[in-house]
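hiii, so i know i said id send this last week but things got crazy w the move. better late than never?? heres the sequnce for the chain we talked about at the cafe, plus the structure i predicted for it. fair warning i was half asleep when i ran it
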Amino acid sequence: MLDVVNLQVHYGGIAAVKGISFVVATGETVALIGANGAGKTSTLKALARLLPARGAMRLAGVDIAQLPPHRLITEGLALVPEGRGVFSRLTVAENMAMGAYSRADAAEVRRDGDRVYQLLPRLAERRAQLAGTLSGGEQQMLALGRALMGRPRLLLLDEPSMGLAPLMVETVFQTIAAVAASGVTILLVEQNARLALATASRAYVMESGRITLADSAAALLADPRVREAYLGE
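okay and structure toks below
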């Protein structure tokens, strides 16, 4: 689904991502873990064409390295950004409609909306509520639901647990697991390494802009280097 070769991201003279290569197979959930400043969010923003980057990026065989951001959703890529990024002055229903802005199949959009509301019943209860008045966890669910309205083949999730209460984190990750089970391929960036490795099938560890470890999630959970550096053991 996703093939990245020698991805580089610079902020002025500072290299945030230093030539990383990785793949995400169709139907996989793959995690990028690492400390703050490791380059994880920069990687996702580069894939979403929100940052200038060098290197090869192919989505289902299509070169996306030069595509403008608004074209990516039509190619099947959607980003749920760090901090959620909902349209606070629009209602839940209007935010959901924004996720389908590139689609002309109105009847299918309505059916997809019904499916997303079934997956996220809390949103269904708040369709007419302004997004800015939702709790942090509800806004995270809305950002996820909005992305799903574009029918993505690859979903990029950036720090979905950030700022959420533990109970809401559990709910959000149960939803992510349900989305993965529906066949959507997921690339997950998550500061909570234990949670990320429990959710993903494979993972990459980033340190200072480079990938330093890559293995199955189970193997990384058992790796003493990962346990010491990221799991506090």
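btw Residues 2-85+152-230 form a domain with the Rossmann fold fold (CATH 3.40.50.300). thought thatd interest u
miss u guys!!
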